[in-house]
## 1
Amino acid sequence: MSKRRIGILTAGGDSPGLNAAIRGFGKTAINMHGMELVGFLHGITGLVNNNTVDLTNDTLAGILTQGGTILGTSRDKVHKFPVDGKLVDMREQIAKNLEKDKIEALVMIGGGGTAKNAKRLADAGIPVIHLPKTIDNDVAQTDTSFGFSTAMGIATEAIDRLHSTAHSHHRIIVVELMGHRAGWLTLGAGIAGGADIILIPEIPYSIDSVAASIRRRAASGRPFSVVAIAEGAHDVAVAKRLRNADELIKLANSPDSKAAAKENRRRIETNERDSSFRVADALEAATGLEARVTVLGYVQRGGIPDAGDRLLGTLLGGAGADLLAEKKYGITVASQNGHAVPVPLAKVAGYDKLVPLNHPWVKAARNVGTGLGD
Ligand code: F6P
């Protein structure tokens, strides 16, 4: 009997732990289930162009500790793929590529965007499973995604270092963290690094309130502050406009009006948000303390995965291979209470996991006197 051939790819922004998951899946699939593994290069792009590499025990050896992804990645979409200046639906092409190479199922490792692409392929009849990675930790139905733990560690160390320079110069340092529309990374690293103020998308801030916290600290003998701000955080006025824009998206009743409503939201989100530099200027003006900005950027995503992400990638990857061996398709392999749990893609794709206002981390931050800008 010929071996079952499985395709695997990584998509979306890279994150630490991707190689651990490729290895965890691959070694389990090859050694425990006798499968053959084919990697698609550069995410959806490789799937469309049938750009593949055979993955064996040899190619999977030594990658556990490597950052990035040995397969490469991209942010392309299966239903809107750029061809000659147009966006084309490539699902039929993808199905043909898989059939031609006798690949019976596909493993897609990525975040929320990849879950949506996986569901699009599953709806088109392609057997697919999704493994959740992202430093943002915003994939629905999973307690954590690999990449988050490492990024939180890197950001925590950065905040530690910013503390001593803020303290020495009696400055405000505004440090911007990634996270897309979720505040997990900023809240987690902010608490662990002892940021004095933490601003996240889920809790709209007021500059007046942030400035008042900083002035109170100065009056009590601490004329310096570290303000950790998530890239998706907004002040109350912009947050209100975004909520209204979200309503308009929900109410849109045609594809054109939906696209226009989404574009409106994107415009508010990108053009009208306070940049960290504007926040720093406003705080300098309101407190009389000098302010500086550090944008952590891609350093949060790069480099070797920590123990937590190696472990999670290995666990979810291996469980994914076991589920695939049982022909369980159309699922995300989620991490729930320490276990790998299959969850239908329909419950994951299109949903965000944001920080609930009653989350223990929010309470913990308030307990130690950290300002949340509200
Ligand atoms: O989703 C991971 C992430 O790093 C986000 O935190 C950030 O908003 C985004 O990717 C950056 O995307 P890109 O790599 O396309 O610049």
## 2
Amino acid sequence: MQLSTKHLLGIKDLQLSDIELILSTATQFKEVLQRPIKKVPSLRDTTIVNLFYENSTRTRISFELAEKRLSADTLNFSASGSSVSKGETLLDTVNNILSMKVDMVVMRHSATGAPHFLAKHIPVAIVNAGDGINEHPTQALLDAFSIKEKLGKLEGKKVVLVGDIMHSRVALSNIYLLKKAGAEVMVAGPPTLIPKYISKAFDIRVEYNLEKALQWCDVANILRIQLERQNQVLFSSLREYSLSYGVNKKLLDSLNKEIVILHPGPINRGVEIDSDAADSKQSIILQQVENGVAVRMAVLYLLSNKQSFA
Ligand code: CP
């Protein structure tokens, strides 16, 4: 089985069969990761560069670990400390790295569309590790994997994305994926952080009242306020945001059911979520991080077009 696409630029471009193939392959890799020797030779002699033009903890370490578990050779590039500060362009930087016989590129960039631009100019597979406010496809895939692992399936499940929908690439990738997989999707948050077009464009629900949103859902994916991407004042203060849209254990306990809590990280404790909710047994935040390695192994393996990994 093969993916219908050469690159993973976004969930928007994937077919449901691609998503199912990635998730089922990730299940097999998760089994590998439970073994005493957590390594397979699948990508031996494959060299992958992780190009990070924007900060990251989880995604960067997760990709690097996934590459190592697949026996690939890995290179890590950070824009800070590189010749980017001397004016070198993205394309020149990448072409110089590729001339050293690199086979695949993982890239995070603050500019929306940067990996799509690169895909038009270089011959190797690109994995988008987050581009501006556009997409973060492997985050949505690991979120889907984690929900499926917890609830058995995605189809028919009610998932709410809470918070800064306007600036969140995690939200957009999740909306694409969940809709393709047959889940019911809602976005919730302050009106200023939810694009006006979103309900019609994606056929999803919008709710401005957090309690009603949580009452409706099976799963709540709580998003960070992306202050670094906001160039205007969209809410009065973080304290007031937290009072209206912060998730805490008292609120979770007031619901007449036990919902599952996700967060892509990094968490701003006390803003979008309190510690008593983030660390509660309803939270699968660290399982998401664990599953990210298996999901990224699956993506890299499938894009490399290798035949067997055992
Ligand atoms: N979820 C996520 O993308 O986290 P990082 O920014 O730490 O990679």
